[in-house]
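Aim 2 progress update. The chain analyzed this quarter is reproduced below.
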Amino acid sequence: MRFCRECGLLAPLGSDQVCPRCGAPLPPPVRLRSRRPEPRYLEPEDPPPMTTGQYFLTLVVCGIPVVGLIVLCVWAAGHTILPERCRLARAYLIRRLLTDIVLLLLLWLLRTAWPLLVPTWYYW
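Predicted structure tokens:
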């Protein structure tokens, strides 16, 4: 868009170097700039891998009876900056769930089979 400095006419797009009304030379065209700059998206940085000490600490915390289960659930839900710890917590929870199911099944079988395994001594 260009305005004539002499008469103030907004010059149409097709006009070249002179004003169509008064014939005065037109200033160079002004480029309109957007008010907002283009957004710059940065690539997210990958967190550093877990060290041996962090793995060891994670497994030690998992061994604490009640606190370990709560912390495992929190880490497995993704509330950690280390994705490896999240995967480790999920795997440990699955292993713990399967182990608990097998142990409960063995205890139930032992409870139901106990009268058959132990002889009764009523005739003494």
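The chain has a mean pLDDT of 84. The chain has two domains: 1-30, 52-111. These observations will guide the mutagenesis experiments scheduled for the next reporting period.
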